[in-house]
Specification:
Structural class: alpha+beta
Strand content: 25-35%
Oligomer: single chain
Length: about 270
């Protein structure tokens, strides 16, 4: 009994995160496009090397109004995401830890669904080609309005600068989907999650207690990350589907893509 109490005590922040996030995620999944349209999007969630593992499970966030209001279009957003996990006895996720390969990293999926029967599909122009500016607004919204404000940085102070380095159209990916994909690679300058704890933020319930920046760096100092997003469309359901990775460099992105994201199973209703 004493040993169990000690284990619970030293893993308090991780256990608190699981107890809050799994029911919260389940609620969002039941409200989201996944449920309404009976999508199956199964992204592998194995942990691989335990010393630098991922959070134990894919989480879901459903945004019915915010993204559509921001882009001024009648759309809703569903986000599937996973970030760096908690090491045994740690009070913080490796999402905060610049020494970890999971530092400031996510992978998952986006579904952007039109709320009406318009022929205009978000992320595609009138020639049915991918609109890169619209595509990159999805991860920007995620970072600017969801992730960073949850850990104390106001949206107006979030940095999000994109340099697209490669675009490939017509790819076969997530092969069971039978869909054609566009792959976009980019360097993204955005904010580090590292900052000094000043007062409680709701994101701490998810990621744990923050780590401070390196000496000489400000809270939420700018960093460069590597990003990859695969985009396709489901015209039957009038929706865009994207699979994405955000990590420290393209070597890590390639590894996550090869070992995890590329094994995603997508089946349409």
């Amino acid at each position: 009994m004493i040993s169990l109490f000690i284990i619970i005590f030293i893993n308090y922040h991780a256990l608190r995160s699981y107890l809050i996030m799994f029911p919260y995620s389940y609620y969002h999944s039941q409200e989201s496009s996944l449920k309404k349209n009976d999508y199956l999007i199964r992204i592998p969630s194995h942990n691989g090397i335990l010393k630098d593992s991922w959070y134990p499970g894919m989480l879901v966030f459903y945004d019915e109004y915010g993204f559509g209001k921001w882009v001024n279009k009648p759309v809703e957003l569903t986000v599937l995401y996973r970030f760096g996990g908690f090491k045994f006895g740690s009070d913080h996720s490796t999402y905060y830890d610049r020494k970890s390969k999971r530092f400031s990293s996510f992978y998952g999926a986006y579904i952007v669904e039109n709320k009406n029967n318009s022929n205009s599909l978000y992320g595609y122009n009138e020639e049915h080609e991918v609109d890169l500016s619209e595509i990159m607004r999805i991860p920007e919204y995620d970072q600017r309005w969801l992730v960073m404000p949850s850990i104390g940085l106001p949206p107006e102070d979030v940095v999000f600068e994109v340099e697209i380095v490669d675009v490939i159209n017509g790819l076969k990916y997530a092969s069971e989907s039978g869909l054609k994909w566009t792959k976009v690679d980019a360097y993204i300058v955005t904010n580090s999650p590292e900052h000094l704890y000043k007062n409680h933020q709701r994101g701490y319930l998810q990621y744990g207690v923050p780590l401070v920046p390196p000496d000489g760096a400000d809270d939420y100092y700018p960093i460069q990350l590597a990003g990859r997003i695969y985009v396709t469309k489901n015209e039957t359901e009038n929706s865009l589907i994207a699979l994405y990775v955000l990590a420290g460099d393209f070597e890590i992105v390639d590894q996550i893509d090869k070992e995890i994201l590329s094994k995603t199973i997508i089946r349409q209703p």
